[in-house]
């Protein structure tokens, strides 16, 4: 690893940027960085300036000579980049608030990666990622695209299959948490690296199995500990944005795999929906809460003396995301062969899914990208839902790329968190109209809807 | 076709028996019948005697020398049988009433082949079909099993995969209706046989495409006619037990295939649920209505002068079922190579589904069974749901055979018509307890639930 | 079938043309023909005129008003065609003689569809078929391409996958013969249509199974009769160009399927090779014999009184080919739903082979093309060779299209009838040089070889 | 790794045993060994005593307290074993001599893992391995079976699929050599571990691709160096028992993967056959040479002062085999997660092959066994041959288990190194008769052949 790296972060004005810088600084021995470019759009200029200034302070405090650039000129930033990370949010948090609140009005779940909310986030994000790739083909044809913009699975699939950018890796923070939690469940320190994990599925829809150093599968042992409603370990590690409802112990044990937190939307739909509707009533949907937290964070970031990641950021949720990105960059740059859980091309890793789709699986990270451990097939109960989710993702991507209203209806019809029928169609129409500014591909459909 | 046939009907006391006899009589030229045995259980003795007497009158009126036997001794009936048809209902209509009413109480859909109702019908029926097969292996090892007991797909899969009875064909009446409807939609007489149809999917979950005699695909043309809310043709051909809600025209056109009536449960779930809950409130669920109709039918059947199928039977729903069975028997007996839509082994016909599962597809009926037309793969939007349904069926069969409570929870968790969570589990428990008499395999679970 | 058809035959000067006309005339009731165009190239002008004149006499003798056109202008002929049949031979019989004799010189098998000969026939033919398709896209975009130019499987795969012409059907004469032979073996008249046949595999590399009208599989019974070395039935039906060596009875019975005659090249390679080398020594390879027969046929055809297909044509070999083509045309034109064995898209019919490849399978012929009966998977012993043959076909097509010398070497390396090594490479080089005039795509390679 | 291990070696009297002990001694820090049992049969008693005494001297010289037991009682040895390695040879080297010489007499290749020789080695070995597994189920149900008895792929498949012993890993020495060779080809020291290798295929029929630390694929670069006929590196690393014929550079470059040495049998069949026939004429087939070498080795081993692996053993061929076994044992015992190339269950790793077959692939070795890197599908030219080889292996295993003569003929018919026909059948018959003592499963067939 002799070459000095240029790293570009699209959506650089994000409140996560300090975590990203902390992650890079922590890996300074493995990362030979020349420059880091934080890119944002006009609407994010203020945030970019605040968090960018802070990032510079962090680099300086660490005694590093990395050049940190802030810019609204994406093309300038991309020129000759080695790594491009994406953490942008089209339509900002207000779009997410709509993604959550409109479905709730119709008595349905809206969520950033699941349900109607996830579909619309994909509709807004996929055209932008394809546009970024168009620039990359011209300006940095050898760069790696490290995506952690949600819905990360669909965005990564669009980047690779539609955009044709093979050097894309999608990231998820969820496995890092469960990895630590499982170690604790088995009596290890959370940072021990003893247990062997195998994850497979889709982004926010994966399961895992675990073995110990004696070759014994300990998946069921971990389930016994973690499904215990009184378990302190579970409480401690819950993903911030998912209510800590308990899975059915019988069901999970029968499954023989540990579901991810997001499986609550599918295994305990009723409870998750109730919780979402309550939050809606109180004006405290996740996005609304996050918006407040973010405002507070940016107040902190303004402090010219702050030159480290503040404790409060961890309340924001999404912990480990930026750290995962830094680890991925370091692993590629150094051919480290670290095992990470990433979204990458299936190529038969999961035999139940299309050969050329994107899956999220335990992979060895090499200088030439992710090499997944083979997984094989799933037991029936997991297989069916997984196949439905992938098909739904495919339909969403088709709709996002083509702007086809019919495909959007298909996506709403088959999404398991949307109850199909009249109300679903009304909800779709309202969401299209409310996202008008961010959905150029649906322009004609939206105009037709508005004129009705 | 020289051999004289012995036909056995399990559940011979059914109100459908006259349709079955009408079908056999209509095919007297192609069916060289020696004897027909109507078998029932003690609880069905009265009905068996009424409808059996009427069946004998029908045969006599037709001037045929077929021996019609009524018996409660299944083993005697099965001895040396050539064809065994199944139209029994474990727990009678009262069980179906519970299948519909308990879910409604929890705000969910219960239905004979879909949702919680279909799962419990499978739980009750599969052990009985396996028991029948055990007898058949001993008493009539070369007989064909013609199943039209619902849920026909799962029962057929259990018979072939678990019971190991390869000579099983599952039947559905739905395609016959749509076949006629499509001819009318294209301006033909309903009984013309001009259009080329290809059906594929699962029982009560299939789609079809249609071509005309010039080789033009007319699927979209038929959709245009049939999806028209004012279409007289659609109204006329609606399946009796499915509310005539309109599909989304955009969605179906995008699909490029014509869904079956039961797809309304998945494509217009909200409306179907509302309708079911209304019927529940009024005490007019489908089973309750049918129970009344049946009582009236049996009153009619008692008339010693009635020697033909009465008009009123067509109101019962399920028209064409018995006729399909007769056509199937005649086709096998004569190696007729008729094209029918049947449940049979996949063997790669639908590449999206497991090789050894049961699918419902257009097949040529030969003396050695069904030879399906190859279908291939489905577009994403259909593929995902189809794969989920098949996986769900597999889990239901596993639960039905093993009596595993955990598998029953799995089935309830992934069934798309059941909203997972606390209420779903309560509903499952109540249904288990209420079906106690018909679920010996779940005995321990039920006792444990009762003692809580 | 009201529309009057325009049928075009590329390679119209072939000695088979009288059989084609006989086939069309025999089906005059099902074929509403307006005009038939026989197309050939300058080198074939004389033959075209002779056989074309005779074709006109045949039509006249039949009292039909069909217009028969002879032309060297392919584009004129293709304009608005309904059916295009191909029976051309690039390089004429002299090329086939080389295909057979050069390999023999190296101690190897050369044969029109197998071994080095088949590979070179593909190299010469595929660019021409792609060129024809280019014209068809412009001049007759709705026409059906009925291919019986060998190697029919590869040519059809190139037409559909590379040329993108979905309305292509490849034909083989072999199944017609075995169909008749099997009926005789089971005691029927050869023209009875009692037995149910299912064929699957590739062109000249397929197997079949057979059932009788009572549903009993009679494949093993037929093997018993046909594998009997003294069987009169086998002798009578042998394909003209394949030596009547006996398969190993044990092997074929274990296979449980009846191989086609061409399987002798793979199951009795040694004997077939010996026979080919003998013929080579005597100057009597198949092509040399055929060349003589053809010359005699054309002498006959010159007779201005001959207005029917002469008996001698049947000695030519390839009987039933043109008849199969006529049957196919009539079936498509009339949506007859006849069952024929054709080369068509796999789409999962044979699960052991790629989804999008071309297979040869029993299919129902409709107005919209071939609808194959599903086959599923093969037993190991057949599966492995079948998969190798398909892979070899794919490599040959890649080489034929790209002119890649490396791909040509790959094809020669993996072809099971070519012993890989030095001699194989020399043979390849000599064949490239000797086929120089017909392989524009390999121009550079050939020039480089020549200058060595 | 606290538990003290019991290691059992079946075929302990092999000349390789010193390499095995050297490998164990070299890993003494990672291997907590209690006892090592060398098992052999009566015929091997003398060798066992010689090499066993030497093994004891080696352990003593290393100052280790491992108990080394020599026994003819396999069951006593297996009791409570942790690892069972197999290096036995049914019929000793004389059987291998026959495997090589009989085919040569018929002008064909006989070889220990390929062609007729490999088939017969499988016939002799598989029943014995299944018998060992029967004992293991009873005596050491948690032990790992480390197989390096050839043909290692088929023996491993039989152990796992037929024997049901999931804890089996098959080993091959070939990849270790190529790994070192590739490092040298790229300018590294042979023991550097810089390059990332991915191997996939079957035992003695695999290919690999290589990437460097900058993520660049260097497969073609390595081909350039290694295919150079003058390359010193290639010469140095040639597998001992394979003639150093040169592959066609064009073919291998087109393949895009590096073949293994055994591919010479398939890519340069002619040259390999010539070489084998020459060796046959001179009485110097590989087995004959090895027999002489072995005699010399045992003379050396008798020296009571020799307490280290003598240099001469490396001439024996098969270097690295025992070392690979030791590395595998150490990796399992320590959950080392080392990457090795092993024969293990496919489970979709190679999508072109059956899900449940055995493949040889790069795998991470954990305490619970091999976790393969996913591979996906192969390009056509490799795919076809690979699929044929696997099908052939399946047929060989079926024959070996059932003793079916018909299956044996099938195997001989489809094996690409056997020219099918009369001579092949004669050769099969002769080999059956000559292996009479080692093929109880073929007893009836052999008696029938003898009485002809």
TrEMBL record, chains A, B, C, D:
Keywords: Cobalt, Glycosidase, Hydrolase, Iron, Manganese, Metal-binding, NAD, Nickel. Mn(2+) binds at residues 172, 204. Residues 199-418 form the Glycosyl hydrolase family 4 C-terminal domain. The keyword Metal-binding applies. Substrate binds at residues 96, 150. It holds the Pfam family Glyco_hydro_4. One of its GO terms (molecular function) is hydrolase activity, hydrolyzing O-glycosyl compounds. Its cofactor is NAD(+). GO terms for biological process: carbohydrate metabolic process. The record marks 112 as: Increases basicity of active site Tyr. Binds 1 NAD(+) per subunit. The keyword Transferase does not apply. Belongs to the glycosyl hydrolase 4 family. This is 6-phospho-beta-glucosidase. It comes from Erysipelothrix larvae. The lineage of its organism: Bacteria, Bacillati, Bacillota, Erysipelotrichia, Erysipelotrichales.
């Amino acid at each position: 690893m002799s070459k000095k790296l240029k790293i570009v972060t699209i959506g650089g004005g994000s409140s996560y940027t300090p975590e990203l810088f902390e992650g890079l600084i922590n890996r300074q021995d493995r990362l030979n960085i020349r420059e880091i470019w934080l890119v944002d759009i006009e609407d994010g200029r203020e945030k970019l300036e605040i968090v960018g200034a802070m990032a510079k302070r962090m680099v300086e405090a660490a005694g590093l000579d990395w050049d940190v650039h802030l810019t609204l000129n994406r093309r300038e930033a991309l020129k000759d980049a080695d790594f491009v990370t994406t953490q942008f949010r089209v339509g900002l948090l207000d779009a997410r608030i709509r993604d959550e609140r409109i479905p709730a009005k119709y008595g349905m779940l809206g969520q950033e990666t699941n349900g109607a909310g996830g579909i619309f986030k994909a509709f807004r994000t996929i055209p932008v990622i394809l546009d970024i790739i168009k620039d990359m083909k011209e300006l940095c044809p050898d760069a790696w695209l490290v995506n952690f913009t949600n819905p990360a699975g669909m965005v990564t699939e669009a980047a690779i299959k539609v955009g044709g950018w093979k050097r894309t890796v999608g990231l998820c923070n969820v496995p890092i948490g469960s990895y630590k939690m499982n170690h604790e469940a088995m009596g290890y320190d959370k940072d021990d690296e003893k247990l062997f994990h195998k994850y497979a599925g889709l982004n926010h829809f994966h399961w895992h199995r675990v073995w110990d150093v004696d070759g014994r599968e300990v998946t069921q042992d971990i389930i016994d500990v973690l499904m215990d409603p009184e378990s302190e370990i579970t409480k401690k590690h819950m993903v911030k944005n998912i209510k800590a409802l308990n899975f059915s112990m019988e069901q999970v044990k029968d499954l023989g795999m540990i579901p991810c937190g997001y499986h609550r939307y599918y295994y305990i739909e009723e409870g998750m929906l109730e919780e979402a509707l309550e939050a809606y009533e109180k004006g405290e949907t996740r996005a609304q809460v996050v918006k407040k937290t973010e405002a507070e964070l940016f107040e902190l970031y303004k402090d010219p003396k702050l030159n480290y990641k503040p404790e409060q950021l961890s309340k924001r949720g999404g912990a480990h995301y930026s750290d995962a990105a830094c680890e991925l960059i370091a692993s590629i740059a150094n051919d480290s062969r670290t095992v990470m859980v990433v979204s990458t091309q299936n190529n038969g890793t999961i035999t139940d899914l299309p050969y050329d789709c994107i899956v999220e699986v335990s992979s060895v990270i090499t200088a030439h990208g992710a090499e997944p451990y083979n997984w094989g097939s799933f037991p029936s109960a997991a297989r069916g839902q997984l196949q439905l989710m992938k098909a739904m993702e495919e339909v969403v991507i088709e709709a996002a790329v083509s702007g086809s209203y019919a495909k959007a209806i298909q996506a709403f019809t088959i999404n398991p968190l949307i109850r199909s029928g009249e109300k679903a169609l009304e909800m779709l129409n309202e969401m299209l109209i409310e996202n008008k500014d961010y959905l150029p591909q649906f322009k004609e459909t939206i105009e037709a809807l508005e004129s009705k």
